[in-house]
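Possible regression after last week's pipeline update?

I re-ran a chain I had predicted before the update to compare outputs. Posting the input and the new output here so someone can diff against the archived version. Not blocking, just want to make sure nothing changed silently.
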Amino acid sequence: MIANITEFERIPRILRLNIAGQPVDWVNWQEAVCLYARDLVSWTVGDPLLKIRGGHSRIDSCRSSMEIHSIIACDGRVVARDSHVPPLTNQALFRRDRNNCLYCAKQFSDFDLTRDHVLPVSRGGLDVWDNVVAACRRCNHFKGSRLLQECSMELQALPYVPNFAEYLALINSGRILGDQMTFLSKSFSAESRLRH
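New output (post-update):
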C-alpha cells in the first residue's frame, strides 16, 4: 500500500526498532522521514507503507523520492529492555484487560472503566501492573478498600506485567498494521491476553 499526499493524516504510525530488532517506540511518518534522511535506518521489514516525493534537482532535474516502510530498524545504542517495566497508564491497562471488568466480566468503554488495586493502596498495595485490574465503576465502588475475600469477589483473570512489545501493541491498539502486529506478537509473553 503506497499512500498519496492527501492521505497523510490517516497514515498509521511506524514501528521503530533498535539495530538488534527490539521494538522501541512508534513514530509518525514525519519522524520516519527524518530518520531516513539522516541515514539512521539500517534495515526495514515488509513492503513500503508510503512514498514521499521531494523536489527536483537543479543539476539533473530528477525528482527525489523516499519509500517509508511500516517497520524500521535504526542505528544506535541497544538498551536491554528485559528488566524495563512499561509505564502504567489506564489506556494500556484497559487494553491489557480487553476492556473487560475483571470482576463482573462485562465489557465497557474506557470512560466506564476504572483502575482497581487488588490489594488496596490503603492496605499497602502498590500502583503497579501486577496489582491493578480494569474494573467497572459499580464493581470498584462495591469492592472499595476491602480485600477480595472480604467482599466475596473473584478475579476473572490474574493481573500481569506486559513486556515492552505488548505495551507498544496496547498503546497503539486499533491502528496496528498486520505486519507490525505479526512482528510484535512474536515477543508477547505466554500469559498475554493479546495472543487470543
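Follow-up from reviewer: compared with the archived run. Strands lie at 14-18, 23-27, 41-56, 63-74, 113-117, 132-136. Marking as no regression found.
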